[in-house]
Specification:
By secondary structure, this protein is an alpha+beta fold. It has a domain of 137 residues. It contains 13 helices and nine strands. The strands form two sheets. It has a five-stranded antiparallel beta sheet, with helices on both faces. The longest helix has 67 residues.
């Protein structure tokens, strides 16, 4: 390939034309397998065709000069084409990698800002749920005797503001000797079928002779009536949380539990807010244990709490995972799935009501593809296209040079033969002298 016509024919037929076949066959195969949709087919076909075409235009000249065994291609021509092309290709790749890293850093910084924003919103949402529990406590602190109707009215005013709450309850602490008169009093208020219940799924229970902390009021009632009368100290995680709340005077959450209100696999937890006799806070552990009167309890569905903040992220192709890591190395899944992407991992530890939660956010491949766009790949495509044009120019220039050299060699050989015929009777020395004379006069190269 020494003439412009041969070079042009090869590059056009071997590049854009032949690559039509591979792009069409490949895209059709992807559509047949359901890997791409019909709407994405044109973009996939165009990407495939451009990539193959540029690949042919860039690497075909290199492969031809490297693998060809023809003696017509001189070492000088191989080097004149190969070295500049490889250098140009290397520079394009380096610039592409630099542009890609810069773009990825921009994407990472943008994602971190999004993650921080949603994390702040999530923590603010948790604080709002804590405030809801405090507000129920304030009702009991401001009244000598809160009736069921008062409790119902107050709770239903708050529920619309807290979509993650399944119920609020008042759990009364009753010693064994106080049990019968207290239950009788409840039945006289309309709870005719009230009975003390315990969680049969847990083997760890208190002895009947000690104390009861059972659900006395609960709202909304109809959806949660199965929990009425549940003795919360009959379940290990509930008993542990309420003991900490009683001893510290703080709001304490349980570890993740399966709620009696839910039939699915969604996880939940309870918040215990202690109430003390005489409506006072006590300064030491002994006083708190002696004067505990009961607990305000919030029943929460973690899925609904998280969804109110992170629902939009599903459309933005960002994965969300919430773990309870209080009992390390054990990690309890509160929200999300175990199969979690780590393309751009972002994590934050959140301390909530005596528990340690970890919020994990990460984009998926669709997010990265959308964020990267075409700018970086345009740099690569433009660079490789320039390399292909540069390679074409080198083929033409070296081909023309090779043709001129071949013509000069042919003319020189012809002149030598003619001189030998004319000077056939002269000695070799004379012929050589005449040859040098002709050479000085530029008659042959």
């Amino acid at each position: 390939m020494e003439t412009e016509k041969d070079i042009g024919r090869f590059l056009v037929l071997g590049g854009p034309v032949s690559c039509l076949v591979s792009a069409t066959v490949g895209t059709t195969a992807l559509m047949t397998q359901g890997l791409i949709s019909l709407d994405n087919a044109p973009v996939s076909w165009g990407t495939w065709w451009i990539g193959d075409t540029i690949g042919v235009l860039v690497f075909a000249p290199l492969l031809m000069i490297a693998l060809s065994r023809s003696k017509d291609i001189s070492i000088q021509r191989r080097l004149s084409i190969g070295i500049p092309l490889l250098v140009m290709f290397f520079l394009v790749v380096v610039f592409f990698l630099y542009a890609k890293d810069a773009k990825n850093e921009t994407i990472r910084n943008d994602f971190n800002r999004v993650a921080e924003s949603y994390s702040d919103a999530f923590e603010g949402n948790l604080e709002k749920y804590l405030f809801g529990t405090y507000s129920i406590k304030s009702l009991f602190l401001s009244s000598e005797n809160v009736t069921r109707e008062e409790f119902k009215t107050f709770v239903h005013q708050n529920l619309p503001h807290y979509p993650g709450i399944l119920a609020y309850s008042y759990n009364k602490r009753v010693l064994s000797e106080e049990l019968e008169p207290y239950v009788a009093d409840l039945k006289s208020r309309g709870f005719d079928h009230f009975e003390i219940k315990k969680d049969e799924e847990i083997s760890s229970r208190i002895k009947p002779a000690e104390e009861y902390v059972f659900v006395s009021y609960i709202e909304p009632f109809e959806k949660n009536k199965t929990a009425l009368g549940l003795n919360v100290v009959s379940e290990e995680s509930r008993n542990k949380a309420l003991a900490i709340a009683r001893d510290t005077g703080e709001t304490i959450a349980t570890s993740p539990i399966k709620l009696v209100q839910e039939k699915g696999e969604q996880r939940g937890f309870l918040l215990f807010q202690p109430l003390y006799k005489n409506k006072q806070s006590h300064k030491n552990l002994e006083e708190r244990r002696e004067n505990i009167d009961g607990f305000i309890v919030g029943v929460f569905n973690v899925h609904d709490m998280v969804e109110t903040v992170f629902l939009r992220l599903k459309d933005e192709n960002i994965q969300v995972q919430v773990l309870d890591v209080t009992n390390r190395p054990k990690e309890d899944l509160l929200y999300g799935t175990r199969q979690f992407s780590n393309l751009i991992p972002w994590s934050k530890t959140i301390h909530f009501a005596g528990r340690e939660w970890v919020l994990n956010l990460s984009p998926n491949n669709a997010y990265l593809l959308s964020a990267q766009g075409w700018s970086v790949w345009s740099v690569l495509s433009a660079g490789l296209f320039f390399v292909s044009l540069f390679g074409t120019l080198l083929l033409i220039i070296t081909g023309r040079t090779a043709a001129v050299q071949q013509l000069a060699e042919e003319q020189t050989t012809s002149l030598k033969e003619q001189e030998v015929k004319k000077l056939g009777g002269k000695s070799k020395y004379e012929i050589g002298s005449n040859y040098r004379v002709f050479a000085k006069r530029g008659l042959y190269l």
